[in-house]
Amino acid sequence: MNRRLSMSAITPLRQRTIETLKLGHYSKRTITTYIDWLIRLGEHYHCSPDRLTNEQVQAFLLYLIEERKLAWSTVNQALAAIRFLFEKVLGRPRAELRVPARRKVTRRAGIYSIQQVEQLLAAAQNPKHRALLMCIYGAGLRVGEAVVLKPEHIESARGLVRVEQGKGRKDRYTILPQRLLEELRRYHHCFQPRQWLFFGRDRAKPMPIGSAQKIFYLVRNRVGINHGSIHTLRHCFATHMLEAGADLFELKRMMGHSAIKTTSGYIHISKEHLLRIKSPLDQL
After folding, report:
1. Residue 266 annotated in active site
2. CB burial class (10 A; 0-12, 13-18, 19+) of residue 147?
């Protein structure tokens, strides 16, 4: 949990907010984020957030934008936390609070070529590290989904990986490539995982997300690539699948996207794929 939260006394208002969030089935990460923002708001004005006016809250949001220079998505997250407190916990009418609309900027996720992914996987010398990275790329998993996999989630007979309670608390299936299955079998033979497929120092607990990220950066630096994060492997899975002719709607289900619009964002074709496409002019 955030250090600020662990050091702060649990006030009756904070406890009530946490309980309301739990009743709404919010994730632990969302609860931590919301409470953290409410603490920041209270510290900014040196008083309890329930005593603040809408005008004070709007001024706080403006401060985050103009003085702190925080990203639009970050400030919108603060707004969501404050609205939850005012409307769901305190029972106030919906407040006229808003974050100024941002200009829509389309950013394409940077990806690696298939050759670069191959180099990354080859550079992962530890069998656990290689199996972890191969799971994320080969099945298109989020890192948070990969580290909580259990051995029974690998359904080898059906060629599927079962993802339980992924983003949005949704269960889904994705593909289990034969090469990944073979790698997992070698890994299982060496490490004999029990409850968690990728355990941390304590075998009874899953590998922390931070540890998985460190593994990726270690391998990435070893290869000499200076861009991208572990999540880039998931972007690569989606892009390479589409380039190979995968159906967009099937890919949506495998990725666990709520909207097809999110999946269609991966239809940005790599340079290597463009070079293989012939112009109709060359066919005249």
Report:
1. yes
2. buried
Whether the pTM exceeds 0.85: the reply is no
Instruction: Quote the CA–CA distance of 144 and 36 in Å, as a whole number.
Output: 21
Tell me how far apart the terminal alpha carbons of the chain are, to the nearest angstrom.
64
pLDDT 10s digits, 122-156? 999 999 999 999 999 999 999 999 999 999 999 99
**Residue 167 catalytic?**
yes
- For the chain, strand residue ranges (E) read 154-155, 160-163, 172-175
Domains of the chain from N-terminus onward: 3-89 (1.10.150.130), 114-271 (1.10.443.10)
Tell me which of 16, 40, 128, 142 is the catalytic residue.
142
257 belongs to the catalytic site: yes
Any catalytic annotation for residue 129?
no
Q: Is 142 a catalytic residue?
A: yes
